[in-house]
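User: We ran a pulldown and think these components assemble together. Before we commit to crystallization trials, I'd like a predicted model of the whole complex to look at. Sequences follow.
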Amino acid sequence: MKPNIYLNLTPEALIASMLSPEEFGSYMAVGIKKRTRGQVIFLEVDGDAIEDILPLEYINERCIPQEGGRPKSSVYLSIYRVLESIPVSALKSLYLTTDDGRTMEIKKGDYPGDIKSSAHLYQELCPVTPRIISKLAPAQFIDYMTKGTEKVSVPKLAFVELQLNGLTEDFENSPAHNLPYPNIDHLRDCLKILNEEPGKTQKTIVRFFSRELLFRTIKNGFFIGDNKEMVYYPFPSEEELNDKNYAWWRSAKSIGFN
Amino acid sequence: MQNIDNIFWFIPFSSLIALGFAFHFFKQVMKESEGTDKMIKVASHVRKGAMAYLKQQYKVVGIFFLIIVILFSVLAYGFNLQNEWVPGAFLTGGFFSALAGFFGMKTATYASARTANAARTSLNMALRVAFRSGAVMGLVVVGLGLFDISAWFIVLNYFVDEPTVAEKMMIITTTMLTFGMGASAQALFARVGGGIFTKAADVGGDLVGKVEAGIPEDDPRNPATIADNVGDNVGDVAGMGADLYESYCGSILATAALGAAAFMKDADSQMKAILAPMLIAAVGIILSIIGIYMVKAKEGATQRQLLKSLSRGTNISSALIIVFSWIILYVLELDNIWGIWGAIVTGLITGIIIGRATEYYTSEEYRPTQKIAESSNTGAATVIISGLGMGMISTAIPVMAVVAGIIFSFLFASEFDVNNMSIGLYGIGIAAVGMLSTLGITLATDAYGPIADNAGGNAEMCELGPEVRKRTDSLDSLGNTTAATGKGFAIGSAALTALALLASYIEELKIGIIRLLQTAENYSFPNGKVVFSASEVSAISLTDFMNFFKVNLMNPTVLIGIFIGSMMAFVFCGLTMNAVGRAAGAMVDEVRRQFREIPGILSGKNEPDYANCVAISTKGAQKEMMLPSILAITVPIAVGLIFGVAGTMGLLVGGLGAGFVLAVFMANSGGAWDNAKKYVEAGHLGGKGSAAHKATVIGDTVGDPFKDTSGPSLNILIKLMSMVAIVMSGVTVAYSLL
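Assistant: Here's a predicted model for the assembly, 996 residues in total across the polymer chains.
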């Protein structure tokens, strides 16, 4: 049986596994005996498309059924500069796994085009993980960050756009009721700076991602790519989640204490 | 045998009507389908768990009852310190209370899947199934309660033989009062055991979900989920039912005893005063049934409209009881009709004020709860602090309402003559009866809550469609509101009932002394006064009685009693709180074990061992309820034996004062913490997942045993201590050291 190849985004790692995406997500989130938990964001990669970079012998040797016929859960192939080495075209579906191991598949979608907004909130996921606000729309942002002309750039980027609700229009007075971000006043200050300094296109809000993304705060979806190509994974609407992925959605909305 | 007025027969008739309608509603509910195979399976797990709990509970309670019946038999037949009817009366009180709990639980556990399934058709259908199932509990409680009262009245009226009708009625009513102890003892175990079970499962399950696994509520992968659903029935159906059964019977019986004493001089008036509370309760049953039929909702009804449709039933019943209680008093031709009627209305208004105050302090629509939620911006500690503070402040209105209720019911009944103590106290008793007269529908509204909650759980576990979940969520949310006001009502009625029992304690003491005089030449009161005959004792006024027993604040034994009574409320609370902590800990360990040892629970490949979690909660509840229960029963006996009547009066006053205020505080703090969390979850202060949310979740977890274990258990404590004192009054007057 040919193993599946997964690209884990948080933290980045290329992993071979005999498990299906749902089983792999569950395994990564809660292990076998439920002594750990934590969300997982990963992509399925077309193994054939990246055959030239895969250590096939190593995979064939290690990724085999374990004692008792149990499929091998994970064989780590790479943990450094992984995303940049995978062609965007080789990326298949994106999977979001909740703390308690429920996995939802998100298929690639068509990017709806830039929606004009005075500010966007982006959580970068890979290879770096700051949370920033930007005047640039997702496609512009990915281009800006990966074209290599800026002092700060990365070869390829995966990020998700988060909700700002009324703060986009009125960062000072909008009540921000349903936004669960820590230090909301800091976010307001940053929006003010971004708004008041014409030359400034982005500002860092949080320097380090705690690996806990509240899925309910996702605005439109996930973006992965560079200045040449980009894939978009649209996050389903709440209505669609309630209708088709209710178990996952409930799990995604429940909070845990670490 | 004294001829019973024809009008009396309306009382047993009405109780049978209640039972008939309960059966009719039960059949109607059972006609509904339970839905898909999965829904049936989930419901069957809950049903089995609930019945396993009840079986174990009744086994323990059965042993306890056996011991007490033997003790009472020895006191009655061996030492002539008690009426020979007491063991039997005690037994039937407990038996009927347990039977009501059994029927209520059975119906509730049959109804949850049916409600969820009805929600697949329409909101109104689901409301109808859930509410009529709750009505089974409401009507069984009032039906069995009134049936037991009327049956004992008929039996005792046939067998008791006294020289005068007035004395006979005194003996009958005071004997009947002791059956309240059976109901009280049963309620103690139902409330304390049920409260520990439900919160061990809920807190244990929640801790696993939130701390261990991040699993949402009502997720079938959580091994404690079924136990949590069982707990809703055990605590809020059986526990609440037994609590209110006791208040219902206790208030009627205490008022009848007070009436018998207050109108001793005129046999005709005495009989009317005895029958009045029973007749008001009987008419209340018919009006409750009318109210139940008024509850219906339009499809797509909003939360406010749903609440309105439930309130319509209770409001109509309450409005009608105001009119019909006057008619009853008019037909009975009781003296001071307007005054007694004023006392009844006072009781009703007191209940409404307490209910509204509870809603104000616990609903997220009002500022107190919103303020607690806002304090979450600075962390969990400030949520706890503000919840405690708000809970303490929230005691003011209910306490003042009860104070006003006592003053007005006393003054109305006594025709504003403060010296007319016995009739004034009768007024307080009948105010409690007025408050509880429409219990049939009030309890239906309370019992509806856990049924709707379980229906929501069933819909979640069986992954029913979004429209169905929306309907069950609406019903569940409505149930949360009615549960909070129901708790306020239960506490308020317990306070008034306990007050009526406290007053009737004096009457029981008289009977105790009269019984002593059958074997002794005289009886010497603590103040030196000596009496030689029963007629002499019967003629002593209530105020003189208090003087003879030196019940005044300068007597240290009264103060000692007050201190011990106040302490009892806190110790009892502490014991039940710690019990929940320990039982919840055991549940967490079990769930951890299951995750470790049963592979595939989280992936859904294997089903958890739900039954074991139910067994652990059951075992924890049975074990942990013993110490507080034994304490609640033995302390009044010990205080009576050591400090005498004065000490016992102090104990009851201290227990009632501290217990009532503490119960309101705990119920309101817990309810407000719960709704502060819901307020945040509704999208305020950052909404779900925010730091504010985490802080309010901690507040809610702390508040769980407050509102569902310790607070409600105090209702029983304050009534049970009075009941024990009443039943043991013969022993107290015979053997007290001081």
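The CA atoms of residues 6 and 275 of chain B lie 11 Å apart. That may be worth checking against your pulldown data before setting up trials.

User: Thanks, that helps.
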